[in-house]
Amino acid sequence: MFQFNVTSDACVKCGKCIPVCTIHEVNRDEVTSPRGFIDLLGAYQKGTLELDKNAKSIFESCFLCTNCTDVCPNDLPVDMIIEQVRNDIRKKFGLAWYKRLAFFFLRNRNIMDVFARFGYMFQTCGFKMVDKQSSMYMRNFPIIKMDRLFPSLKKKTFLNSHPDVIHNGGKGKVGIFIGCLANYMYTDIGKSLLEILQVLEIDAYLIKQQKCCGAPQYFTGDFDSVDALAKFNIKYIEGFVNELDAIIIPEATCSAMIKEDYAHFFHDQPEWKVRAEAIKPKIFMATEYLEKKTNLADILASKARQSESITYHDPCHARKMQGIFKEPRNLLSKNYVLKEMSDPNRCCGFGGVTMQTEKYHFAKAAGLPKAAMIKATGAEYVSAECSACRMQLSDALHGQQVDVIFKNPIELIAKALREG
Ligand code: SF4
Ligand code: SF4
User: Which of 330, 350, 321, 190 is nearest to 255 (CA)?
Assistant: First the structure.
């Protein structure tokens, strides 16, 4: 059942969304613009548009960046309606084999752990390594034909590298929901978060049985997987949430999914909607919690100021969905020279699994202006609290031969504590 009905007068055609639309910027066609999507969505809901391959391709062209909903005078949730249509598309056309395989692994973490271990051992057979950001360059990979930078799997996952509970003095108790990319690939994020909690003397509880938050499946329209993953995570978190001060997540997308999208997703399952909303007050993005609920900013201010400079990119799921943009800047600016981009809020162009594979040409085009903006700041580091943005922007920077290192703010904060 659709959560939102698009009536014929829902869009007043004011055009405010056009200059901010990520897909329209790289594919200047009215059809692939918020207004165009709204027209087609209205026709689909009225039953006058058939979901054929052309409609599928159009609806899969939206980056789900929420820029349009941010400026729309009628608050039209274009992204959320498209997510619901993508579920119908998935039911009609099915999912590509590699998406089914990836979502199967993300639904079954024990199997994913074994796969990741094999992947770690054999990844150099299919990929050419490039160093510095411990990423790989995918050169003419035989199945997904594309040249691009891709993060490498680590020998041991973050969750399998540490005990369940790390006692740091008991000044507080927080659970860590690490997210899949930081668990399997960008493992230094979790390690850095543990270092920060140790300095703050806050006990860390690793949420070891966590499953994927379901965001990749949600954006792809695999609602069966989202239903199973969200229910598992909610039920699991309910088991210990009252014993913790907070559950912190160093990833904007996972945090937004659990905090905001679970309740939207369960709009027609009242019991689960209530349960999703009940855990919400304890869910925080990591920098949000550290800045608002601890004395980390004061500790950082007492450390040496570094000569290194950073620029901060606002992930769509942090700034627009959760209103978080001051917190990472406030912490980072204590020890680094902050050089703002001309438009830090512009979408990086990640766009989800389909955009990163079948529609990679759009993702690549959307990443170019962002890479140029980062270069123009002259900063040594670019930071964003989102590993999906990191994957996309590292690829864009590599493609443009821009020599800027990408780090999660948590890694940069831990570095400042270590070196200060
Ligand atoms: S969500 Fe982003 S890409 Fe999609 S229509 Fe809105 S502004 Fe355009
Ligand atoms: S901002 Fe909203 S009302 Fe205006 S054209 Fe875009 S979708 Fe329509």
Answer: 321
Q: Which residues does 303 contact at the CB level (< 8 Å), separation at least 6?
A: 334, 335, 416, 417, 420
Q: How far is CA 59 from the centre of its chain?
A: 20
Q: Could you read off the pLDDT of 116-162 as tens digits, one per residue?
A: 777 666 666 666 666 555 566 665 555 555 677 888 888 899 999 99
Closest ligand 1 atom number to CA of residue 69: 6
HSE-up (13 A, CA, CB side) for residue 324: 30
Atom 6 of ligand 1 has which residue's CA nearest to it? 68
Which residue, judged by its Cα, is nearest atom 1 of ligand 1? Answer: 64
Q: Is the dihedral of CA 126, 130, 131, 135 positive or negative?
A: negative
User: SS3 for 96?
Assistant: coil
Query: Residues 319, 267, 78, 84: what is their CA dihedral angle, to the nearest 10 degrees?
Result: 120
pLDDT tens column, 296-313 = 999 999 998 878 999 999
What are the b/e assignments for 279-308, b being 16+ CB within 10 Å?
beebbbbbbbbbbebbebeebbeeeeebeb
pLDDT tens per residue across span 367-417: 999 999 999 999 999 999 999 999 999 999 988 889 999 999 999 999 999
Task: Indicate the CATH number for domain 301-419.
Answer: 3.40.50
Ligand 2, atom 3: closest residue by C-alpha: 11
Q: What is the CA radius of gyration of the chain?
A: 21
> What global pTM score does this model have?
0.93
Handedness of CA 407, 280, 198, 116 (dihedral sign): negative
Extract the runs of DSSP E, i.e. beta strands, from 64-188.
128-130, 135-138, 148-151, 165-166, 173-176
Q: Positive or negative, the Cα torsion across 134, 296, 250, 378?
A: negative
Between β-strands 148-151 and 173-176, what pairing exists: parallel, antiparallel or unpaired? unpaired
Distance (Å) of CA 59 to CA 56, 261, 363, 409 = 5, 19, 15, 33
* Token reading at 269: 């399952």
Q: What are phi and psi of 174, to 5 degrees?
A: -125, 145
Q: What DSSP line would sit under 245-270, residue for residue?
A: SEEEES-HHHHHIIIIIHHHHTTT-H
Q: What is the rounded CA–CA span in Å between residue 381 and residue 374?
A: 9
Residue 171 CA to chain centroid, in angstroms?
A: 30
Question: Residue 418 Cα, ligand 2 centroid: separation in angstroms?
Answer: 48
